[in-house]
DNA sequence: CAGAATCCACTATGATACTG
DNA sequence: CAGTATCATAGTGGATTCTG
């Protein structure tokens, strides 16, 4: 469990708070779009529309929502250039970069086990 | 992007198929419950009810659904003992173990940046 | 005990239109 | 261009009941 590492120690109340926060973060971030956004950003800075083009299938709305959420959690920095038309750039922060390692890991895993998974599916889908 | 590593190579059709499969897998597995199940299983074998107790807040239905999905993708092995009452055990397969490394990474990340994220949230939630 | 099936509330998502 | 708002709807997920 995500939260296990916090159990059974001195300050019960604090730890419960940390627990539920960890869980909340986990719920927020462990989703498809977040991961794809983090992957897409990588080490680059991208504008809203560039990001939208980069991530196949994401809707305007989902991109906005997930970017807000990532910004709120401090994984993404949003820089607004007060020009007309507006120019908004998104970049991964340090913590965002930290998570990127994990997401990269998952991408590698996906490609490593692709045929393996494909076979498992065929077996399952009688 | 998850799929980028497959683009621009010889056999277009095959690669597109691999692409969409990778994307499908990503969508299936990059979700909160999958991750929590993989974490909970770790190196242990657990029964349905044990798993349910282990993962706080998961409903009977979600656990069943996600276990089926993980089984279908070959990450989890389901062993049924033909007894009364039935005894069903779940274990991570090799590929499941492979993904566990990633999930562990995310757990570590969560705990490492916990206070960082908490601060970012406070700043954001004016 | 494990799980399938049902019902139902609620949420997520896409499409569309509007604003600075 | 980026973002907000609104609406319709498909889908999620919980509670409950039933079965082998």
Structure overview:
The structure is a homodimer of 126-residue chains. Chain A is mostly helical and 126 residues long. Chain A has a single domain (11-125), classed as Winged helix-like DNA-binding domain superfamily/Winged helix DNA-binding domain (Arc Repressor Mutant, subunit A). Helices cover 62% and strands 11% of the residues of chain A. Chain A contains six helices and three strands, in the order ααβααββαα. The first copy, chain A, has helices spanning 12-29, 32-41, 48-54, 60-72, 94-112, 114-124; strands at residues 46-47, 76-81, 87-92. In chain A, strands 1-3-2 form a three-stranded antiparallel β-sheet. In chain A, helix 2 packs across helix 5 (94-112). The longest helix of chain A has 19 residues, at 94-112. The mean pLDDT of chain A is 89. Chains A and B meet through helix 1, helix 2, helix 5 and helix 6 of A and helix 1, helix 2, helix 5 and helix 6 of B. Chain A binds a DNA duplex (20 and 20 nucleotides) through helix 4. Chains A, B: GO terms for molecular function: DNA binding. Chains A, B: Keywords: DNA-binding, Transcription, Transcription regulation. Chains A, B: This is DNA-binding HxlR family transcriptional regulator. Chains A, B: It holds the Pfam family HxlR. Chains A, B: It comes from Streptomyces pseudovenezuelae.
